[in-house]
Amino acid sequence: MILVADSGSSKTDWMGYHNGETIKFSTPGINPYFLSEQEITNLISKNESLLQYADEVKEIYFFGAGCSSPDKHEVVSNGLSAVFGNAFISVDHDLLGSVYATCGNAEGLNCILGTGSNICYFDGKKSMTGTMAWATF
């Protein structure tokens, strides 16, 4: 099973495909600026629906707020690895996940509007250039 997660600081949406069915879960947000590895493990361990598939998960693609540097990738990856011991885990910035979902292989502009808002230009291959702005309402 492959899981894909889209995480902000408030909530994380998880989606997978199991035995011909799409499965969806939600957990509180996972942001390595606010949660330690152990807190991430504890948070995931409280979700019974997600835990029932833990041994079957072979890959996780996690796109999250605060996951823009290798050290923050490691915090999230280590927290998830404690629950999903059989899985390859990829962690990257939520803006990259948004680019993949909206642009695919085409160039374009992409935005995330939330507590932390981002905008970037994607060249259709690999490079993103943009700005990050924090908004408080």
Characterize the structure shown.
- The protein has 137 residues and is an alpha/beta fold.
- 26% of the residues lie in helices and 39% in strands.
- The chain has four helices and eight strands.
- The strands form two sheets. The protein has a five-stranded mixed beta sheet. The protein has a three-stranded antiparallel beta sheet with strand order 6-7-8, with helices on one face.
- Helix 1 (37-45) runs parallel beside helix 3.
- It starts with a strand and ends with a strand.
How are the strands ordered across the major sheet?
3-2-1-4-5
Sheet having the most strands: 5 strands, mixed
- Morphology call: globular
- Helical content band: 25-40%
Spatial gap, N to C terminus: 39 Å
pLDDT < 50 stretches:
132-137
Radius of gyration using CA atoms only:
15 Å
User: Beta-strand level of the residues, as a percent range?
Assistant: 35-45%
Task: Note the run of SSEs as H and E.
Answer: EEEHHEHEHEEE
Number of helical stretches of at least 4 residues:
4
Task: Assign the structural class, choosing from mainly alpha, mainly beta, alpha/beta, alpha+beta, or little secondary structure.
Answer: alpha/beta
Compute the average pLDDT: 88
Q: Please report the total strand number as a whole number.
A: 8
